[in-house]
Design brief:
The protein is elongated, with a radius of gyration of 11 Å. The protein is mostly helical. Helix content is 50%, strand content 0%. It has 1 helix and no strands.
Amino acid sequence: MNSSNSQPRPEDTEQFLKRANASKPTPA
């Protein structure tokens, strides 16, 4: 990961959320 980029791109954020959802079951 590039620490120089303080602002995460929307794509990175989407992947992060996807990973979080995959590793952690979301209460639906």
